[in-house]
Amino acid sequence: MSKLNFETLLEAGVHFGHLKRKWNPAMAPYIFEEKKGIHIIDLNKTMVHLDHACAAMKQIAKSGKKVLFVATKKQAKEIVSERVTKINMPFVTERWSGGMLTNFQTTRKSIRKMALIDKMKLDGTWDTLNKREKLFKTRQRDKLEKTFGSIAEMTRQPAAIFIVDILKEHIALAEARRLNIPTFAMVDTNSNPKLVDFPIPSNDDATKSITLIMDQICLALSEGLEDRKNLKEGGNEESTESSNVVTEAVTPEVVAEEIVAEVTEEVAAEEVVAEVTEEVAPEVVAEEVVTEVTEEVAPEVAPKVAEKKATAKKATVKKVTAKKDTKEKPKK
């Protein structure tokens, strides 16, 4: 629940609406009464909707996502920029350029141009430019800084958008609705609250009213960021403690496992050698047996081989002599 009470809202003038002739019929459930031609906002409903919006904002910040604040009207510019800068959230207070969300890639290109000019000043390229080019670059840099300087760190589309006066910022609201981005807004009696996901019925023209609502929203975001920081620190401490306990408990077992692994490797090597010798042994034994048999049998086989060779020589000699005899016989 918000820390605001009925009296503080009443003192800040949050209950003052617009003239009766400027009202939007969709705001009828949030209007308490009409007084001197001016609609009075029901502050009880304002407190309820503000609590819902703060709870949602807290969850968004806790998840580590960004919320984009949009307020280009004179009364809200300084208030929004001062408070949002403290919590490191993107904001737009000068001018909403069309397509800032729907054409986000082009927006990022413009931001990169600004970063490129800053890089030129650091690496010495700036000194090589002539006077005219330097003047052009500085003017371009100032123009980009004015429009996109506050969203330079927004590398992706925001998780939500907070708007002050949805009638003036209707382009931003339309882009957020088109991209299905959750919308939070201060809604006065001349606006349509059905266009906003989390409407806060309140006076969006008075500086005191804007300051009060913005303080509550920024407080919810800072609480969410603090919770996220505490969760991270607690998680890191638990992880370090658990890692120490695990190392202490597992160290003896790990040493034992290493010893067992070394022994198993040695045993495995011996088994492999044994298997190899078992597989190779039959062939080696066969070769050894053959050599022994040939050595033993060779003396017995040698005479028979010599006899066969002698008979073959005799046969060839007989054939040759027979041919010579036939040639030497005279013809009749």
Strand order of the largest sheet: 5-4-6-7-8
User: What proportion of the residues is helical, as a percent range?
Assistant: 55-70%
Helix- and strand-based class? alpha/beta
Inertia-based shape? elongated
Query: Stretches where pLDDT falls below 50 for ≥5 residues?
Result: 245-256, 258-302, 328-332
Mean pLDDT over the residues: 78
| Helix and strand pattern | HEEEHEHEHHEHEEH
β-sheet strand percentage: 5-15%
Features:
single chain, alpha/beta, five-stranded parallel beta sheet, 10% strand
Helices and strands in order:
Elements (H helix, E strand, L loop, with lengths): L5 H7 L3 E4 L11 E5 L2 E4 L1 H20 L4 E4 L3 H13 L4 E2 L11 H20 L7 H18 L11 E5 L5 H9 L4 E5 L10 E4 L5 H122 L4
Parallel strand pairs: 4-5, 4-6, 6-7, 7-8
Antiparallel strand pairs: 1-3, 2-3
Task: Please describe what this structure looks like.
The protein has 332 residues and is of the alpha/beta class. It contains seven helices and eight strands, in the order αβββαβαβααβαββα. It has helices at residues 6-12, 43-62, 74-86, 104-123, 131-148, 170-178, 207-328, and strands at residues 16-19, 31-35, 38-41, 67-70, 91-92, 160-164, 183-187, 198-201. The longest helix is centred in the C-terminal third of the chain and has 122 residues, at 207-328. The N and C termini lie far apart (152 Å).
What would a concise description of this structure say?
With 332 residues, the protein is an alpha/beta fold.
